[in-house]
Amino acid sequence: MTALPNFVDWETIPPLRLAPGVTLRVFSSDRVMLSLVDLEPGAVVPPHQHPHEQLGIWLAGDAEATIGDNRKHVSAGDCYYIPGGTEHTFVTGPDGGQALDIFHPPREDYLTP
Q1: 42 Rama sector, left if φ>0, alpha if ψ -120 to 50, beta otherwise
Q2: pLDDT tens across 62-107, in order?
Q3: How far, CA to CA in Å, does 67 sit from each of 24, 38, 85?
Q4: Which sequence spans correspond to the domains of the chain?
Q5: What pairs with residue 74 in β-bridges?
Q6: What's the number of CA atoms in the CB half-sphere (13 Å) around residue 38?
Q7: CATH number given to 30-111
Q8: CA angle at 18 for the pair 17 and 22, rounded to the nearest 5°
C-alpha cells in the first residue's frame, strides 16, 4: 500500500453508497480501516455479516441496532463491537445518524469500487 498521509480531510475522500440513504468514506492502512458512515433519516443498513471484526462509535443521531441476538437503541457516544461472522443491522431514527467504524482487517469490498 502507498504511504499514508499523517492527516486526512474526510471531505476529500469520495463517498461510497452502501444502501439507499447510507454513504461512507474510508481511510485505510494495510491492517486497519476507518469508515465514516452517514445515514439519512429512516435509512436501513440491511442485515449482513462479514469476516472482519468491527468496532464502532455512534457519533450523531440515533438508530436501532441489532447485532446477533442483541438489540439496542444507540445514540451519540454509544460504542459497539461486532465479531466477524455476526449478522447485524442498523435503522436510523428521524434525525438520521453518523457512525465511525473500525475494521480489522480492512474490508476489501470497500477498497475496490
Answers
A1: left
A2: 999 999 999 999 999 999 999 999 999 999 999 999 999 999 999 9
A3: 20, 19, 11
A4: 30-111
A5: 63
A6: 10
A7: 2.60.120.10
A8: 80
